[in-house]
Write a sequence for this structure.
């Protein structure tokens, strides 16, 4: 069982939740309030949904050996456009404009990476810096407050007692999984990430596929931006989505996808994102003093990364004088791609 | 491969920061005759208060005929130090800045002193034993703001018998307003043992953090009577969390905040907040007077307070129409 790729991230998440249970027994309490579920666990799902969305987009980008540093800035742009537009237009138009612009920004990243062959980390760094400036330009440097009911429902609303934002994130995850795993797309992506040149020579249009991944990542960040700005009832060009790109990359890595591209796990990414959000909620729930918050997070993340590392586990096992052959990771559901 | 990527990333970051660092471009020397050049290193644009502060400084510099070089540190001390260094290199007449955190300024301020450029602190103080590093500190008395918030709580619950549970949304850890507002507030409420701070966490002065932290408070604490949010934005974020918990902000949980932004006063007028202590961001005109005096070599007081007041719900309704920020 420990060989399954989702075992270690899931174990870490469960351990963290159980730790909370030990320290504060009320942590798991979920009740119905105002016709919807209410509790710490629901908060984790709701507040974690932007990160899940972004991390799902990031997973596909990382699978192609790329990286998208611009997602945090795209979040800010998306919220800024939507909130500024809401002053004069209706919700549908505002949201459509925001997401439209995010698609364009994603296409720009994709063009730099796939078209001009610029290193992904550099190509997306441009928008990471410029995008936040763009967001502040759109909002005029102010926090634009919105009071539009339907827009605020994106993050504050509930459907079937569950947070709407979480349902959106799950819908995107389910749809993405369905498309990449029920068609050849997933395999093709892993092939491109494993070896772009070999894939191209064997007839795959690597460039267009890579471009599409960045467009998709931009779209995911755009939706996350809507949720984030809806959540705080305003567009904050400076703080919305700040450093979320790092959390997203961490979520992907915790989920078992390697930064070197190739094989990827969307399910693992979702668990990774939930783990990171649980960590944040834990800090607040346990009342860890502000000065110690970052250290606490760093320690937990380090432990999670260590237990995930086969080399570290092998060392640990070795010290216990129980020599074991290195675990061969079996993947019955996927095709191995030579790289 | 990895190494090239890292190298490229570093090169990219350096390149970008150089572009922003040299943004001013002009070599206008300030101080000696003609227009005074003021280099201002702002904290960031983290709240409505801050953007009002920025606008006030930019507008009044224009009115006073002072050439303003403005930089935004995005809440990072390293960025601010870099901006100050670039002002020293450009030989501006006066440097003013609003320190992100209280400590760690001695080296860069000594460099400014060596270069003969006077420094003015605005809005936030620094924690240094060497008071010759800056000419003057213009800004609010944060300890007093915390104290006023505490006074209101003490008065509001003066006749209450049972314990009064207080939750605090702190500002950015280590910043002067967070430290001082906590101090002023705690000084007042610790006088009466019925007041208990049951939860206190960093909300980073932003709405998003304020909301998440408050959500968690509401679950970990069985009863919260009063919320002290150290700025309006965190209080505004907390409103949603309180509503989601099925409680009425302003009634089930009384809220006292510091700042007095337009959105904050609106919430106060709507009965969602109960008391707002003003922290006036419009210190631009006072700052420009000070800059002119310092540039002309006149002596100035070491500490200058900005004009401030406090609002209850009725006062907020009266003040709202003329609120600029």
């Amino acid at each position: 069982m420990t060989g399954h790729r989702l075992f270690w991230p899931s174990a870490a998440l469960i351990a963290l939740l159980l730790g909370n249970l030990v320290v504060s027994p009320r942590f798991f309490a979920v009740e119905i309030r105002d016709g919807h579920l209410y509790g710490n666990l629901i908060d984790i799902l709701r507040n974690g949904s932007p990160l899940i969305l972004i991390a799902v987009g990031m997973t596909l980008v990382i699978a192609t050996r790329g990286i998208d540093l611009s997602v945090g800035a795209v979040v800010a742009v998306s919220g800024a456009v939507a909130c500024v537009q809401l002053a004069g237009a209706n919700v549908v138009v505002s949201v459509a404009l925001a997401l439209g612009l995010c698609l364009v920004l994603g296409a720009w990243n994709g063009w730099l990476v796939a078209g001009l062959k610029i290193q992904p980390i550099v190509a997306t760094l441009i928008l990471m810096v410029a995008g936040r400036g763009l967001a502040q330009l759109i909002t005029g440097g102010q926090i634009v407050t919105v009071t539009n009911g339907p827009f605020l429902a994106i993050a504050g609303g509930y459907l079937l007692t569950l947070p709407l934002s979480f349902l959106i994130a799950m819908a995107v995850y389910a749809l993405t999984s369905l498309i990449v795993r029920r068609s050849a797309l997933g395999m093709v992506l892993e092939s491109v990430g494993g070896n772009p040149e070999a894939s191209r020579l064997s007839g795959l249009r690597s460039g267009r596929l890579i471009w599409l991944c960045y467009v998709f990542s931009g779209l995911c960040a755009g939706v996350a931006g809507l949720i984030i700005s809806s959540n705080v009832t305003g567009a904050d060009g400076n703080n919305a989505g700040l450093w979320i790109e790092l959390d997203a990359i961490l979520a992907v890595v915790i989920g078992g996808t390697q930064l070197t591209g190739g094989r990827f796990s969307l399910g693992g990414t979702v668990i990774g994102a939930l783990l990171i959000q649980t960590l944040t909620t834990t800090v607040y729930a346990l009342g860890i003093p502000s000065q110690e918050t970052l250290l606490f997070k760093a320690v937990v993340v380090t432990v999670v990364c260590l237990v995930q590392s086969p080399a570290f586990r092998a060392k640990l096992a070795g010290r216990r004088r129980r020599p074991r052959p290195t675990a061969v990771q079996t993947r019955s559901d996927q095709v191995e791609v030579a790289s | 491969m990895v190494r090239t990527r890292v190298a490229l990333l570093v090169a990219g970051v350096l390149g970008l920061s150089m572009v922003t660092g040299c943004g001013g471009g002009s070599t206008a020397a300030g101080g000696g005759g003609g227009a005074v050049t003021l280099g201002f290193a702002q904290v960031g644009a983290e709240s409505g208060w801050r953007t009002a502060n920025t606008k006030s400084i930019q507008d009044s510099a224009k009115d006073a005929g002072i050439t303003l070089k403005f930089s935004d540190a995005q809440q990072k001390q390293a960025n601010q130090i870099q901006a100050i260094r670039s002002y020293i290199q450009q030989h501006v007449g006066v440097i003013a800045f609003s320190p992100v955190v209280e400590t760690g300024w001695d080296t860069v301020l000594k460099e400014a002193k060596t270069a003969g450029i006077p420094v003015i602190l605005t809005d936030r103080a620094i924690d240094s034993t060497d008071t010759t590093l800056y000419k003057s500190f213009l800004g609010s008395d944060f300890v007093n703001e915390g104290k006023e918030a505490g006074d209101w709580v003490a008065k509001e619950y003066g006749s209450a018998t049972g314990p009064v549970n207080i939750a605090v949304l702190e500002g950015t850890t280590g910043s002067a307003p967070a430290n001082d507002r906590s101090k002023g507030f705690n000084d007042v409420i610790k006088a009466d043992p019925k007041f208990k701070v049951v939860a206190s966490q960093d909300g980073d002065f932003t709405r998003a953090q304020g909301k998440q932290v408050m959500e968690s408070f509401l679950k970990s604490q069985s009863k919260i009577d009063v919320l002290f949010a150290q700025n309006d934005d965190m209080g505004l974020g907390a409103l949603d969390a309180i509503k989601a918990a099925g409680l009425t902000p302003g009634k089930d949980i009384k809220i006292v905040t510091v700042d007095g932004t337009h959105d904050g006063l609106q919430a106060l007028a709507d009965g969602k907040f109960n008391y707002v202590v003003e922290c006036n961001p419009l210190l631009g005109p006072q700052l420009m007077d000070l800059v002119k005096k310092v540039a002309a070599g006149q002596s100035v007081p070491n500490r200058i307070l900005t004009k401030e007041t406090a609002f209850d719900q009725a006062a907020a309704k009266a003040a709202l129409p003329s609120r600029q920020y």
